[in-house]
Amino acid sequence: MEMWLIPFRYDYMVTAMWTSALIGGVCGLLSGFITLKGWSLMGDALSHAVVPGVALAYLAGLPFAVGAFTSGLLAAGAMAFVKMKTPVREDAVIGIVFTAFFALGLLLISLFPSRIDLKSIIFGNILGIAPADVIQVVIVSALCLVTLAFKWRDLMLFCFDANQARALGLNVGYLHLLLLLLLSATAVAALQAVGAMLVVAVLVTPGATAYLLTDRFGPLLLIGSALGTVTSFAGAYASYYLDGATGGCIVTLQTLVFLIVLTVAPKHGLLAGRRSRRQRIAESAV
């Protein structure tokens, strides 16, 4: 029993575990909206688009969150502008903008390799997170949670059917921008835990898992947030014993949970689908 409590003896591990849990909970909560809206590719785009902002922040000696959030907003704004002004499909716009931003980030990293911490950007650095960065993560997470607490119903309607939301008098443009802001802010927070390459996983997997377990949006949000919190804490905890990348441990655990739920979910799981097919075949044979 004593062996399993060792990680709690180290302050850096305790900080990494509760910070990861906080980030995972917020990502899991937002994941429900992303799943409903079909914005998985948007999450991937923003997670890569923050790379040049992080690189510039390192070069300027600024907090990385400032550069990442600014870069994410610029990318989101560029996507929205191109989508409104041209007939190009949204998926193509996302692909063009996020690859352009990611390429710019890689260019900056290649030009200044000794001044930019590439490993922290790509893989995250939750075990070595500085106190100032912890405060930034807490502030970003708190703002996202408060915003979702007050606007979740409007965002739910917007994600489900934007035309209906517009017909009911909601400002669809404002809700679109708000969701982009929340997605950008959450991607910045998650960057510390799992790095740019895996942000999309923590923004999508909990919601996708919860989607298999319930058809109601309220429980979907709660389940997604709970899954994000528990798997992020457990992944950070397990990384101590595995001596592996914390982000990799978190995302691998979330994927394993998704695969288990995909198999055994009572309504949408593979086993349930097989039972349903057998039942239909038996009824048709009678």
Briefly summarize what is shown.
This protein has helices at residues 11-37, 40-49, 51-60, 64-85, 90-111, 118-123, 131-160, 162-167, 172-194, 199-213, 217-242, 246-264, 270-285.
Query: How many structural domains in the coordinates?
Result: 1
CA-CA gap between termini: 57 Å
The low-confidence runs, each spanning 5 or more residues with pLDDT under 50, are: none
Q: What helical percentage do the residues reach?
A: over 70%
Strand composition percent: under 5%
CATH class: Mainly Alpha
What name does CATH use for the topology? ABC transporter involved in vitamin B12 uptake, BtuC
The helix count comes to: 13
In angstroms, what is the radius of gyration?
20 Å
Looking at CATH, the homologous superfamily is: ABC transporter involved in vitamin B12 uptake, BtuC
The CATH architecture: Orthogonal Bundle
The number of distinct β-strands equals: 0
Judging from the principal axes of the Cα atoms, what is the shape? Answer: globular
Q: What is the quaternary state of this protein?
A: single chain
Q: Whole-number average pLDDT?
A: 84
| Backbone structural class | mainly alpha
Most strands sheet = none
